[in-house]
Every structure is written in structure tokens, then in C-alpha cells.
Fold this sequence. Notes:
Layout: H1 7-19, E1 24-27, H2 34-45, E2 50-56, H3 62-66, E3 69-72, E4 77-80, H4 89-92, E5 97-103, H5 110-122, E6 124-125, E7 128-129, E8 134-140, H6 154-157, E9 161-164, H7 169-178, H8 183-191, H9 211-222, H10 232-243, H11 245-258, H12 264-268, H13 283-303, H14 306-323, H15 326-339, H16 346-349, H17 352-366
Parallel strand pairs: 1-8, 1-9, 2-5, 5-8
Antiparallel strand pairs: 3-4, 6-7
Helix pairs in contact: 1-2, 8-13, 9-10, 10-11, 11-13, 13-14, 13-15
Amino acid sequence: MDISVSPSQAQNMLVRAIHADRPTFLWGSPGIGKSDIVQQITDNILPGNNIMIDCRLALMEPTDLRGYPFRNPETNQMEWSPPVDLPSEEFASEYDLVILFLDELNSAPPSTQAAAYQLILNRRVGQYQLPQNVRIVCAGNHQTDRGVTYNMPSPLANRFAHINMSVDFDDFMLFAVNADVHPDVIGYLNFAKSDLFDFDPKNAGKAWASPRSWVRGVSSMLKTTGFDQADLQEQKAEIAGAVGDGIAAKFVEHRRVSEFLPSVDDVLAGKVKKLDTKLNSEISAKYALVIGLAYALNETFQSGDKKVFKSEFNNAIRFSYDNFSPEQVILLFKTIMTTYKIRFNVRTDMEKDLYKIFSEKYTKYIV
């Protein structure tokens, strides 16, 4: 399985598979967001009232799927009690679709995989039958990912449509900006894109950088009360626990320099027109400011005050021309136009001298 797709492409493929009632296996390294994609599809993309049931098969026994055997005193035969983790007909009837997400399937013991095989192949196991509106999505890590995995039986593997998902920086940025990930994380990663994901199966380290560790680890830490008051050694140790020692050291240094950044509000108000000279060589800090400006402009745009937006927009563009590299200016425009979907007329909303520079230097990269 050599063809890899980005998270957004995997999402599109999963949606089509769910509509076609085709069991799908999503492959990918730890921490790249496999379960998050299935949850997002369930909550925000599929029409209707839906729910995802998350079953971690690596933690389950065969009886968790098949049910527990008991003797029926009336028939003197062995029967199976229904499994509590799987949706009953009564439960499923409350929703349009139930997504049964069998995570870590290839990390489950062979006996549990055998029970899952019956469920996936026949939509039943023992005396339990899957309701008609249940769709099956499975996921797991590659055997090369240093996790505990078992070979998947060929008949089971042949039942799936397989999707091999990889990390994609642009997809992550689109998610991060909309998910209110801390601006320092976004700014740093725009500078050090390779640090988004540095998982190496041959490395025995306990922590590594991944989309999950940046969002649920670092970004959450930065928003925690008291974190900014801790000394640098404490901060570095906490961040290292999420993304590893080397990246933590670079990230903390990035934040230290970021304190010289001007207030976003002052830039948009036209009060600050030049960056502190200490930041001339600090590329990551400038990227953080780019994202901060775009975020603030979107808030003004959403308020509906067109006059204030036009003023702040022009101040932000003028500031970016004077202080940012062409790549950073392009990022500002693309974040405004693509991520936040802010619509403006470059001829009427942009001041003439700014529009002239835009048309000469940036149009071919942005429009």
C-alpha cells in the first residue's frame, strides 16, 4: 500500500465509503489524527443525527464482541448475552447513522480479531446482529510503527477498502487556525514545518512531535493558567513531555523572542508600523504575528463593521509589506482568503498604493 493521501483526501474517501456501506481500514502512524477524522465526519459532515461508537479493540477480549455464554434453562442450550459495547436495535433506532469505529484492530490479539472478522464480514457475531444503519470504520498503525501489532488475516484484510493516511502540513494548518490552536504553535510550525511530525520508529524516545501532541499537548499547556509564570526550565520540561527534548528547546526559544512582537491591536490600529530590530532575524516570531493578524482581522470581519475592517485590513497589509518576507505576505493573504473565507474587493477595499504592490508582486501567487 504505497499510495498515501492527506487527511482531507482520506476524509473524502471515508465519506464515500460510509455512503456505500463499505467497511474501511484507515492506516497511519500514531498521533496523526485518525480517530479525530472519523469523529469529525460523524459530527459535521454526514447529514442527519449521527453518533460514533469508539471501540479500542486492543483492550478488548473476544467476549466483549461475541457476548458472554450462558445456559438457557428453558431450552438447556448455550446462548450468548448481547455485547454491551455494540449498538442494539433500540439504540441505533435513535440515530440516522451509527459509525462503529473499531480502533487499533491490528493491535488486538488474534482471538479478538477473529471475532471482529465475523462482525465485519457477516455483520453479525454469535447471536448478535448489527442494525442496518450501522457503518464500520476501522483503524490501526503500521507494523513498522514500533507498536504492538499482529498480522491481519488475509480474509479479513480483503474485506476492507484500505486508506493509507499521512501527515499534510496545509491540512493541519487549516484545522489549527479554525480550532483555535495557540498562535505560538501555529507561528512556530510555519517556520519549522518539519517539526509538525518527527516520529521515528527506530527512536526509543517516549515523546515525539505529531499533530495530536501539538494540539492536545503543547497548545493546551500554553492556555493553562500559570504556565507563562513558570520558569523556562519548567516550561521546557513540560513541552518536552509532549514533543521531545530537541523541539521543546527550539520552541521555548521561539516564545522567548516572541515577547518583542508588537500588539496585534496596535498594528491594526496603525499605531505600530515597524518591527523591533531584535526580530529582524526571528522568522518564527514573524510567522506567529502573521497568524495573529489574520485571526484578529477575521474577528473584525465577523462583527460586520465594514468601515473598521477596511481600515484594519489596510494597516495590516501595509505593515506586512514593510516588515514581512514575500512568503509571509502570501501566507497572510491566503489565511484571510482561504482559511477564514473573507471576501474583499482589491480595487475598492485596498488603498491604491497597496493595490499597486499587490497586483505587481503577489497576484500570481494568490489569485
